[in-house]
């Protein structure tokens, strides 16, 4: 018997415009009869969302709170993070919300934030790595690392390491990394992962997102059978504040087809909340509630060697101290 849902998904997936825009979301969600995430009961679970003050992060935190979860909003601005918590408390009636103020590009702040979180919460059922923006100009953190790599590669690597024991004791738990379809255009880089004077924001962002997806697979390989499930997500092209600020020309051209923030957040939320498919696999790259290949182009696949993967893991390990 022909699986017409699978056929339709494959047809949509081939051209990027249909797959990444709201067209793909609308067709797939209807054909798949997706259960809305906000129908899950997450009472008793603790969910951590970084970059929770706006866009996808705020939407995810709000939906998780609406499902009854205890949500930890992690942000770098005390005022904005507290405002986000208060807004979510008003909209959902959920008072079990917490705030951690720490910059994901600064290791010392991450260590402090993790210590605060662990002291206040006995469980960590899901950690959603969402923090990170496309920086138009090159900036360095206090340790001399390029800021995009610091916030989106090294920062999540450190925070995952610090929370891993608590997540094991909370099993089954999940680590979810919000990546981007931009990584499809970037090969896996290690020695030149951090761009120098030739800095181009969009390319640096894509390099970091490629590293995220590779590390997601490596986390699953290094920690199998421990009850912690690692997933990476491509949200599609969503009309977020980040897109509005960093890619204004792209937004003007694509605005009628861009996904809503809620549509962009859907698959990450489903991976955090659902006890079916997300707990039956590990290390996958997801888009619209289906696992997807991590390569679309031959040259990026050729760059993805076991030696380079090991070098990336070793480099990240060498840059943090837990």
From TrEMBL:
SMART domains attached to this UniProt entry: PKS_KR
SUPFAM superfamilies in alphabetical order: NAD(P)-binding Rossmann-fold domains
Domain (Ketoreductase): residue spans on this chain: 45-240
* InterPro entries in the cross-refs: KR_dom, NAD(P)-bd_dom_sf, SDR_fam, SDR_member_12
What name appears for this protein in its UniProt entry? Answer: Unannotated protein
Question: Which species does the entry assign this protein to?
Answer: freshwater metagenome
């Amino acid at each position: 018997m022909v699986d017409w849902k699978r056929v339709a998904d494959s047809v949509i997936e081939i051209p990027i415009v249909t797959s990444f825009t709201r067209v793909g979301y609308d067709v797939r969600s209807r054909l798949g009869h997706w259960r809305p995430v906000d129908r899950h009961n997450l009472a008793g679970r603790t969910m951590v969302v970084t970059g929770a003050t706006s866009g996808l992060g705020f939407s995810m935190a709000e939906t998780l709170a609406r499902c009854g979860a205890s949500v930890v909003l992690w942000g770098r601005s005390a005022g904005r993070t507290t405002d986000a918590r208060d807004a979510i408390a008003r909209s959902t009636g959920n008072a079990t919300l917490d705030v951690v103020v720490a910059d994901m590009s600064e290791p010392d702040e991450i260590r402090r934030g993790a210590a605060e979180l662990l002291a206040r919460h006995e469980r960590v059922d899901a950690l959603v790595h969402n923090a990170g923006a496309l920086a138009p100009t090159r900036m360095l953190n206090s340790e001399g690392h390029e800021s995009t790599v610091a916030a989106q590669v090294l920062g999540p690597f450190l925070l995952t390491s610090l929370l891993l024991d608590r997540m094991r004791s909370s099993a089954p738990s999940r680590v979810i990394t919000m990546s981007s379809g931009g990584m499809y255009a970037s090969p896996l880089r290690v020695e030149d992962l951090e761009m120098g004077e030739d800095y181009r924001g969009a390319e640096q962002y894509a390099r970091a997102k490629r590293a995220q997806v590779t590390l997601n697979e490596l986390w699953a390989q290094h920690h199998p059978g421990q009850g912690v499930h690692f997933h990476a997500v491509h949200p599609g092209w969503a009309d977020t504040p980040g897109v509005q600020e960093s890619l204004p020309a792209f937004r003007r051209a694509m605005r009628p087809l861009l996904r809503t923030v809620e549509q962009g957040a859907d698959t990450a939320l489903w991976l955090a909340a659902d006890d079916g498919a997300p707990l039956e696999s590990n290390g996958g790259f997801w888009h619209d509630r289906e696992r997807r290949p991590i390569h679309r182009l031959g040259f990026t696949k050729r760059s993805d060697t076991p030696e380079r993967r090991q070098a990336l893991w070793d480099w990240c390990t060498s840059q943090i101290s837990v």
